[in-house]
Design brief:
The structure is a single chain. By secondary structure, the protein is α/β, with parallel strands linked by helices. The protein has 3 domains: 2-80, NAD(P)-binding Rossmann-like Domain (Rossmann fold, 3-Layer(aba) Sandwich), CATH 3.40.50.720; 92-297, Mur-like, catalytic domain (UDP-N-acetylmuramoyl-L-alanine:D-glutamate ligase, 3-Layer(aba) Sandwich); 307-455, Mur ligase, C-terminal domain (Protein-Tyrosine Phosphatase, Chain A, Alpha-Beta Complex), CATH 3.90.190.20. Helices cover 36% and strands 22% of the residues. The chain has helices spanning 2-10, 24-32, 67-74, 82-90, 104-117, 174-177, 180-191, 207-218, 269-284, 289-297, 325-339, 353-367, 391-401, 418-425, 443-455, and strands at 16-19, 35-38, 55-58, 78-81, 94-99, 123-125, 137-138, 144-148, 163-166, 199-203, 222-227, 233-241, 244-251, 258-264, 307-312, 315-320, 344-348, 372-375, 409-411, 431-435. α3 (67-74) links the parallel β3 and β4. α1 (2-10) runs parallel beside α2 and α14 crosses α15. The protein starts with a helix and ends with a helix.
Length: 458
């Protein structure tokens, strides 16, 4: 929502809005000229003056009884879902959409930074803030629009991309879609939205994405696959290098073919795979290969994607958005080479009651890749609590997955007690990783402060 507001403001339109609480993002919007209220009330529709707005944009999180939405409908105002507004902003551009269960924010960000490096000045809307610029959206003048495409509520079906990237397809968001089959089906519908002369860039190493590529070809859509198991753009080798990574890639989908090194400043083979997807999308958009490679190598990451928060003594603290078992496992495998003799201590906050119930065992297996695990209670977000569904389900699953795990798994439902618990567990050389899609991200500074008190500052 904030990204859409940024682009509208960049285009010279008057924008107002509201949120439940203050945030740095709201301050940025105010600095751009937006009128922003805290709390939802019908009177907020008049923030722009007596004439009021001509349209109201809402997210999926807005309930039908929201007072501003009720008032907007009573006035006969046009009400648009977030995805409809974003689709309208894409008009007149060549559109690249990045979708997938995991990795879409990082891949969208890599593609955006690479195109910027090639001086194409893309418009973009991303689900996270770029570390380099601190922005999640921009109105560019290059005629290209890059967007993260959200499948969680099916809203990406509002877009008609010329280039669609799908990193993977794995059951998630079943609170909305109901079944794994329905979740897969919405990706097929997304592929059907690709422009007639467009292309699907798909990761062949992921079974769901590979099946989607086959479906796309059956519909007459051109497909460009990447990964270790495809001849189109083959990841021949990957090696971690000083907290980053280098992939050697053989690309057959361009004239003459070429073998290149793709350097990524963030760790993990999954990130290198995302970079290859971004590289191919950039080539489809007409950017030069050398410029794209340089841009990806300079990519500084996305906030909340293995973001360094600070250190106390010899203990480093990072924060990550991973909230699905596959994401958790991939990040922990990527982190392991950077630990160098210490341990990985994860502070994990489950996100959604439905996801906790459905994937408790899978979370247990993923978190067992860490050395010490602290599990918080569930961050319910848009859901109401379910009887018997707490963070203890995942803590028990981690214990089951860890043989001889006595004392290594801790369920702590009290948010306030976590900093002291983690500080008591951490030892010199350890890496502490807060992980989840909720307010666990707020713990970083508190952890560092408590560690400072116990082990001394860095």
């Amino acid at each position: 929502m904030s990204g859409i507001a940024r682009i509208l403001l960049d285009r010279g339109l008057a924008v107002s809005g509201s949120d439940a609480k203050e945030s740095p993002g709201l301050e940025t919007l105010r600095a751009q000229g937006a009128k922003v209220a805290i709390g939802q009330a019908a009177g907020n529709l008049d923030l722009l003056g007596p004439e009021g707005p001509t349209a109201v944009v809402v997210s999926t999180a807005i309930k039908p009884d929201n007072p501003e939405l009720v008032a907007a409908k009573a006035r006969g105002l046009t009400v648009l879902h977030r995805s409809e507004a974003l689709a309208a902003l894409m008009a007149g551009h060549r559109v690249a959409c990045v979708a997938g269960t995991h990795g879409k924010t990082s891949t969208t960000s890599m593609l955006t930074v690479a195109l910027q490096h090639c001086r194409l000045d893309p418009s973009f809307a991303i689900g996270g803030d770029l570390n380099d610029s601190g922005a999640n959206a921009h109105h560019g003048g290059g005629g290209v629009f890059v967007a993260e495409a959200d499948e969680s509520d099916g809203s990406f079906l509002a877009f008609t991309p010329s280039v669609a990237v799908v990193t993977n397809v794995e059951a998630d968001h079943l609170d909305h879609h109901g079944t794994a089959e329905a979740y897969t089906k919405v990706f097929e519908s997304f592929v059907d939205r690709i422009a007639p002369d467009g292309v699907l860039v798909a990761c062949a190493d992921d079974p769901g994405s590979a099946a989607l590529a086959t479906y796309a070809q059956s519909r007459g859509i051109r497909v460009w696959r990447y990964g270790r198991s495809t001849p189109d753009a083959t990841i021949v080798d990957y090696r971690p290098v000083d907290g980053a990574g280098v992939a050697r890639v053989r690309i057959h989908g361009i004239p003459e073919g070429v073998e290149v090194e793709v350097r990524v400043a963030v760790p993990g083979e999954h990130m290198a795979s995302n970079a290859v997807g971004a590289l191919l999308a950039g080539l489809e958009l007409g950017a030069p290969l050398p410029g794209l490679l340089d841009g990806i190598a300079g990519f500084g990451g996305v906030r909340r994607r293995f973001e360094f928060k600070g250190r106390a003594g010899d203990v480093r603290v990072y924060d990550d958005y991973a909230h699905h078992p596959t994401e958790v496992a991939a990040q922990l495998r990527a982190v392991r080479p950077a630990v160098r003799g210490g341990r990985i201590l994860v502070v994990f906050q489950p996100h959604l009651y439905s996801r906790t119930r459905q994937f408790a065992a899978e979370f247990g297996a993923a978190l067992a890749l860490a050395d010490e695990v602290v599990v918080l209670d569930v961050y319910g977000a848009r859901e109401q609590p379910e009887p018997g569904v707490t963070g203890a389900l995942i803590a028990d699953a981690v214990s089951d997955a860890m043989s001889g795990s006595a004392g290594r798994v801790h369920y702590e439902p009290s948010f306030e007690k976590v900093p002291s618990l983690v500080a008591s567990l951490a030892a010199p050389g350890d890496l502490v990783l807060t992980m989840g899609a909720g307010d666990v991200t707020m713990l970083g500074p508190e952890l560092i402060a408590e560690l400072d008190r116990r082990v001394g500052p860095a």
